[in-house]
Amino acid sequence: MLQPNIETFLACEAAYEEAEIVLYGAPFDSTTSFRPGARFGPRAIRSESWGLENYSPYQDRDLSDYRIFDAGDQELCFGDPKLALADLEARAGQIADDGKIPFLLGGEHLVTLAPVRALARRYPDLRLIHFDAHTDLREEYLGTPLSHACVIRRCWELLGDGRITQFGIRSGDREEWRWGRDHVKTHPFFVDMDALEETVRAIGEKPVYVTVDLDVLDPSVFPGTGTPEPGGVSFDELRRAVTYLGERARIVGCDVNELAPMLDATGASTAAACKLVREMLLAIAGRKR
Q1: Is the dihedral of CA 103, 207, 134, 285 positive or negative?
Q2: Is-contact 231 132, C-beta < 8 A?
Q3: Where are the domains of the chain?
Q4: 42 — phi, psi (to 5°)?
Q5: What is the mean pLDDT of each run of 10 residues along the chain (289 residues)?
Q6: Taking the complete model, does pTM exceed 0.85, yes or no?
Q7: CATH no., domain 16-288
């Protein structure tokens, strides 16, 4: 019998009611300031994920053993960041209220603000761990406070001092770096696993949101992004970091964003994004199980 053609991320075909993790896409890049295209990231990640295996030899785990639901891309208003964020926030809140972990596929980095808003209401002691090339701590950019360049500053307004830790940062204007010294903890240039482990120990069982801007990766391995920044981390450094977090931290939500697939005709950037999502899903689901 013929069946509907419904594309999901690899092996993420559980029913919503039984799912532990819910994937959903945010095809939005309206505040992108350099090279657009991240709105096509979620669809590319789903499509190209079928080039992977369900099984991860890194973790000895298989996606088919876990209950993960893919809700597809959310229909968003491209021209109004406020409306787009409100719709994404409502979706994240619904998923969390149903006892599941929202896993957002971006999209530009501004979309992170939506699930952080929803989860900060549900978890007043929420912590944020941020992987990125850029500080994203501007008060405003080109006259707007709702920009991908301001997203972590907006998250800080919700969470406050001492709750945001950044890794891999190597770009930002002078005022961002100066302001950040007093308000967030930044580990620049690379992912220091000792610092990551200490961060997780200090957080303990407090709820954690993890946001991964894929431009934390060096452009030599990940050119398919809107604002590439030389001097980044390797794929394996990032994979080990997010796997460690998935296994050790109490993650209540997460995202992977800023893949612009058409900016890398080889497909290597999309493949890297797919594999990172697989490893994060397996680590989080394995700990939850």
Answers
A1: negative
A2: no
A3: 16-288
A4: -60, -45
A5: 73 95 95 91 96 97 97 90 96 97 96 98 98 97 91 98 97 96 96 96 98 98 96 97 98 98 97 98 89
A6: yes
A7: 3.40.800.10
